[in-house]
Amino acid sequence: MSLMMREISEQPDALARTLRAERGHAREFERFARRQKFKMIVLVARGTSDNAALFGRYLLELTTGIPVSLCAPSIYTLYHARLDLKQTLMVGISQSGESTDVNLVLQSGRRQGAYTVGITNETRSTMAGIVDDVFTVRAGRQRSVAATKTYTGQLLALYLIAGGLGPAIRLDDVARIPGWVERALTLRRPLEELVERYRYMRQAVVVARGLNYASAFEFALKLMETCYIVAERFSSADFLHGPIAMVERDLPIFLFHPPGPCRPTLSSLARRLRRMRAETVLFTSRGVPLPPATRAIRIPADIPEIYTPIPYIVPGQIFAEQLAAAKGLNPDKPRFLQVITRTI
Amino acid sequence: MSLMMREISEQPDALARTLRAERGHAREFERFARRQKFKMIVLVARGTSDNAALFGRYLLELTTGIPVSLCAPSIYTLYHARLDLKQTLMVGISQSGESTDVNLVLQSGRRQGAYTVGITNETRSTMAGIVDDVFTVRAGRQRSVAATKTYTGQLLALYLIAGGLGPAIRLDDVARIPGWVERALTLRRPLEELVERYRYMRQAVVVARGLNYASAFEFALKLMETCYIVAERFSSADFLHGPIAMVERDLPIFLFHPPGPCRPTLSSLARRLRRMRAETVLFTSRGVPLPPATRAIRIPADIPEIYTPIPYIVPGQIFAEQLAAAKGLNPDKPRFLQVITRTI
Fold this sequence. Notes:
The structure is a homodimer. The first copy, chain A, is an alpha/beta fold. Chain A folds into 2 domains: about 5-175, Rossmann fold (3-Layer(aba) Sandwich); about 185-325, Glucose-6-phosphate isomerase like protein, domain 1 (Rossmann fold), CATH 3.40.50.10490. Chain A has 14 helices and 10 strands. Chain A has helices at about 5-10, 10-35, 45-65, 75, 100-110, 125-130, 150-165, 170-175, 175-185, 190-195, 215-225, 235-240, 265-275, 310-325; strands at about 40-45, 70, 90-95, 115-120, 135, 205-210, 230-235, 255, 280-285, 295-300. In chain A, helix 3 (about 45-65) runs antiparallel to helix 11 and helix 9 (about 175-185) runs parallel beside helix 14. Chain A is globular, with a radius of gyration of 19 Å. At the A-B interface, helix 3, strand 2, helix 4, helix 11 and strand 7 of A face helix 3, strand 2, helix 4, helix 11 and strand 7 of B.
């Protein structure tokens, strides 16, 4: 079994462990946040962690009503701009805690008045030493180059932060996520058959909307890293503003299609794509009525939309790992990559 | 000549006209903004206009020190969240002023306390009727489906807004932009030869950093719309966090390589890509020392970095138009697209 598949399979345990260990801390953060009255949230990350930040951007704005900005690190690290960050919560996300630019932004943000929180796997990392507070992802050491268990662990930490900032996220509901991930893992066998169809796929588009927009970015990144597929990612609305012109029979479109308020617009896009004779593949779950699609990958569970992003990325991770194998590639040895990437 | 090329060529006039007509208005906005003391800026747009917003995200944060957030429209239009937008400047950007979701966000933002500004080509549009203030892009009617002169006009309006919010942008400098665009237009002949090499290109990556990050998105969108090329876009830092694994001899990498603080990191990426035997194409200008590259497209002018994003997109627009022609496609009739796209 590849390291990547082993880490994919470890996710229910890793999530449950992180939740157990950070529950008390989440309560403390809640008491602190209530006094602070943050007016703005800035999220800063790179790579897979930046996809976690993209999820956080939706989750935090939706559940707290506090406007969220995804940081452009170069503004701090290359242009050295000074921003007014009073009453701002700045959250840095990095698996290793050694992402040079993310750490520079956190240091600069702190000087400019922000309260800084780190989400990292490594309690003894540089990041953990420079922030005001740390949420630790207890995923165990990441040995696969392609991040899986650390990504879902970062999402979990963002639920804990959202729960501290407002009443919409309840820890008892968050505690159900590991069980949903268990269900998603049962798709391993059917996906092993399904990926055969995509052995010669060289390019793809991944589309989503809202809370799962980040899932589109993360699935596309796994396809790029492990299968060397040129995988574009769009919100369903942006896809209609130009990129839809690319659609051809040989450009498959993967859609994240959970229950919830984004579903009608995604269903309508899926129907339109089928009329255009495009190949469409849906990530969805039990009980969700489906538009016509070439293939549907259904997680055997009924999951409220707000908690779908963790279980929904799991079949995407499995798909990428198995497709790499079907292509004769080693998902544990992507070309040109290391576990820790340092950029400024 | 295609409508698209005609509109590309109209840009110096359109920009000069917009600047002349909006100069007085920009001064009024400056007086108003000084009293308001905005604490945050939210930008909202779709498609090409969203690429203009991405430029605005960097320009406004860099030159004003006010944190900027790129709006996720679904949070307003599908999830109906309520955000606290007091002391917030919300800027909506839409060529037609009829983008349903952008208008819904502006209405909702205004109710939640934001001061709303529209940037549009159409003074009698829905958008112009619902915002507190309008910057009008005097580009003349856009008849090409692929937006060119309206995009650069939107960037110009963002310079005017930045000039109103802080001292870094001076209108006398902005007034030099139409001249730089004239210089960029002289590249039409050399580009006509260059595109021959890319006749069979089916996928590409576009990389940039900082102020020209938006240029990467906009050039990639033109390649998707008019040439049906699957064109990915990345910041040079994010590209190293995974996607670099896709690089192959047949996946060309286009880099925006202006002068300024982002240049060293882009040069270093270009050198690394050449060592990997990737094809690299640089958009750059006179006087910029170049790393090894397969091809360089040099604008014959010395342009301070902060004013590069308008002249730098021009060779990208020309490249897309001419490559479409070389591929036997009609750049004025992209499949499946209209000038106005309505999404929610």
